[in-house]
Amino acid sequence: MFATDRVRLRPPTPDDAPNMFRLYGDPELHLVTDGEPFLPRHVGQVRARLEKQVTEPPDGQTAVSLLAETVADGTFLGGGSLWGVNPFNQYAHLGISLLPEARGQGYGTEVIQLLCRYGFRNRNLRRLELETLASNTAMRRTAETCGFTHEGTQREREYDGDGFADMVIYGLLRRDWTP
Ligand SMILES: CC(C)(COP(=O)(O)OP(=O)(O)OC[C@H]1O[C@@H](n2cnc3c(N)ncnc32)[C@H](O)[C@@H]1OP(=O)(O)O)[C@@H](O)C(=O)NCCC(=O)NCCS
C-alpha cells in the first residue's frame, strides 16, 4: 500500500489487536498523544472494534487510521493517522505513535512522510497540521525534519498529567512539500 524501503502503512486487521492494545493501552503515553481521558479497555474490546471494521469499514471522510510495520518482516512499529479532515478548506491533522522500541531509528520520519504523501497526493489536501506538547522534543524535531513550520504556541492548552501544558502547532503547505 503506502511504503518506503523500510516502512509500510496499512489498515489494521483483527489479528493486530494485541499490538494495537499494547500501543494504545498505555495511560502515560495517552496523556502525551490524546486530548481525551484515558478509558481502560481489554484486548477483546480492541479486537471487537477491528472486527466490526471488517464488515463496516469506516468511510474515511474525516479520519484514516493506519498501522506501521517493517517491510522486511512485518514487525509492528506503531500507528499513524490523518484526522480532522476538512475537505472544504482542504486541510487535515496528522497523528503518530510508535512503540518505545521502535523510536529513534528514523521510522517516525518515514511514517510522517508517508502520511504527507497520502494527504497531499491521494486526498488532494492543501495543508497538513500537527499538534504536540511543547515538551515533546522528538515529535517537534520529526515535524521539522519533515518540513513542517512551527506556526504558534497555545498556552496551557492540554492536561499532561501534572498540569496544563503548552501545545505547539506545526503546519505544512503542499507548495512547500518535498515528496
Ligand atoms: C515522536 C515520534 C513519532 C518520533 O518518531 P521517531 O522514530 O522516534 O523519530 P526519528 O527517529 O524519525 O527522528 C526524527 C528526528 O527527531 C529526533 N529525535 C528523535 N527522538 C528524539 C528524542 N527523544 N529527543 C530529541 N530528539 C529526538 C531525531 O534525532 C531526528 O532528528 P534529525 O532529523 O534532526 O536527525 C516517536 O518518538 C513516538 O512515537 N513518540 C511517542 C508518541 C508521541 O509522542 N507521538 C506524538 C504525539 S503528538
Automatic annotation (TrEMBL):
<keyword id="KW-0808">Transferase</keyword>
<dbReference type="GO" id="GO:0005737">
    <property type="term" value="C:cytoplasm"/>
</dbReference>
<dbReference type="Pfam" id="PF13302">
    <property type="entry name" value="Acetyltransf_3"/>
</dbReference>
<protein>
    <submittedName>
        <fullName>GCN5-related N-acetyltransferase</fullName>
    </submittedName>
</protein>
<dbReference type="InterPro" id="IPR000182">
    <property type="entry name" value="GNAT_dom"/>
</dbReference>
<dbReference type="GO" id="GO:1990189">
    <property type="term" value="F:protein N-terminal-serine acetyltransferase activity"/>
</dbReference>
<dbReference type="InterPro" id="IPR016181">
    <property type="entry name" value="Acyl_CoA_acyltransferase"/>
</dbReference>
<dbReference type="InterPro" id="IPR051908">
    <property type="entry name" value="Ribosomal_N-acetyltransferase"/>
</dbReference>
<feature type="domain" description="N-acetyltransferase">
    <location>
        <begin position="7"/>
        <end position="175"/>
    </location>
</feature>
<dbReference type="GO" id="GO:0008999">
    <property type="term" value="F:protein-N-terminal-alanine acetyltransferase activity"/>
</dbReference>
